[in-house]
Design a protein that fits this description.
Elements lengths: L1 E6 L3 H10 L5 E7 L3 H11 L4 E3 L2 H6 L5 E4 L6 H10 L3 E5 L6 H13 L4 E4 L6 H11 L6 E8 L6 H5 L20 H11 L2 E9 L11 E8 L4 E7 L7 E7 L2 E6 L2 E6 L3 E5 L7 H15 L7 H17 L1 E3 L2
Parallel strand pairs: 1-2, 1-4, 2-3, 4-5, 5-6, 7-10, 8-15
Antiparallel strand pairs: 7-11, 8-9, 9-10, 11-12, 12-13, 13-14
Helix pairs in contact: 4-5, 5-10, 8-10
């Protein structure tokens, strides 16, 4: 029985709490929230079922806990995760891991030093269509990759969303915009699919359609180590968006959406359909981490992998050209 605590009980925290409560190999012992008001609400809801605190250090100091889930706003990840790893507890951190590459690398090194299982919450890595894509690429069914393009602009937001919390759309509260928040999953997958980025150029739109401090849209051109070029577009301002990835190689092409993969080669066309949505990815991801903790194995999305995505995003923000209408 793995004894765990959860820091952060917002929408994602409540979701994870419900999922983890269904695993017989997990005992949820402690919850941590940021205010006394939230503490009282949880006590009214759960009574004495859990130890409830507004001090995450109490969870880190609790010798009975073996693993902690950090599900707070991302600017707070580094400080909390460091405390967890210093206490030599296994760590699951919601994406993105941190706001800087140096912070991410420090956490990776600390996890290795203290022999902690360390996972990052990129649940789309567990989506069957994207798992199939990774499998096809790993088996070299497309031959030498030549180009790819990914349009992902299904994350439409208007100002109602950004007014729902004072930290949304701000540099202090989020640290970045669509690339760090809504499109971060696909950016991580792009890096995961194609490996090391040799060169990157980026156009980032800010204060175009929305009066935000952070980018609302991005177009990025990648050159990967294997030679192929990739174009990545994401936006929160397009009402009629799509999520569509195309990959071209010398032996064929791949067309990918979250629900379908089409592999075209000289000999045949194969279609793989996955009707379920991303909700199925959360239990798979959390169980993957739980099993890694119990058996002292590696989770599917390691802290080291999450750190690579942080470093790529940091690089994009550093070299990006910002513009508005």
């Amino acid at each position: 029985m793995l004894k765990v605590g959860i820091v952060g009980l917002g929408a994602i925290g409540e979701k994870y709490l419900d999922i983890l409560a269904q695993f017989p190999q997990v005992e949820i012992k402690s919850l941590c929230v940021s205010s006394e008001k939230s503490v009282q609400k949880l006590k009214e809801k759960y009574g004495s079922q859990y130890f409830i605190s507004k001090n995450y250090k109490k969870l880190a100091e609790d010798d009975s806990l073996e693993a902690i889930f950090v599900l707070t706003p991302h600017p707070t990840h580094y400080e909390i995760c460091k405390e967890v790893l210093l206490a030599k507890k296994h760590l699951f951190c919601e994406k993105p891991l941190t706001l800087t590459g140096n912070e991410a690398e420090e956490l990776v090194d600390l996890a290795k030093k203290n022999h902690c299982v360390f996972a990052v919450g990129y649940n789309l890595r567990f989506l069957p269509a994207f798992e199939k894509t990774a499998e096809i690429l790993a088996n070299n069914l497309l031959g030498t990759l030549t180009s790819s393009q990914w349009i992902v602009n299904t994350m439409y937001r208007d100002m109602t969303y950004y007014h729902s919390a004072s930290w949304r759309g701000t540099l202090k509260g989020e640290g970045g915009g669509v690339l760090l928040n809504q499109g971060n999953h696909e950016l991580d997958l792009y890096r995961h699919f194609f490996g090391e980025v040799i060169d990157v150029k980026a156009n980032l739109r800010r204060k175009g359609l929305l009066p935000l401090e952070v980018e609302e849209a991005a177009d990025i051109l990648f050159r990967f180590k294997n030679g192929h070029q990739g174009l990545f577009h994401c936006s929160v301002t397009e009402k009629f968006g799509e999520n569509h990835l195309e990959i071209f190689g010398t032996k064929g092409k791949l067309q990918v959406t979250p629900h379908q993969v089409i592999l075209t080669t000289e000999d045949k066309v194969e279609k793989f359909t996955y009707p379920k949505g991303k909700e199925e990815t959360y239990p798979k991801m959390l169980l993957d981490f739980i099993e890694a903790c119990i058996h002292q194995g590696l989770p599917k999305v390691t802290g080291e992998s999450g750190a690579k995505t942080v470093k790529l995003l940091e690089r994009i923000y550093h070299i990006g050209d910002y513009f508005s209408f």
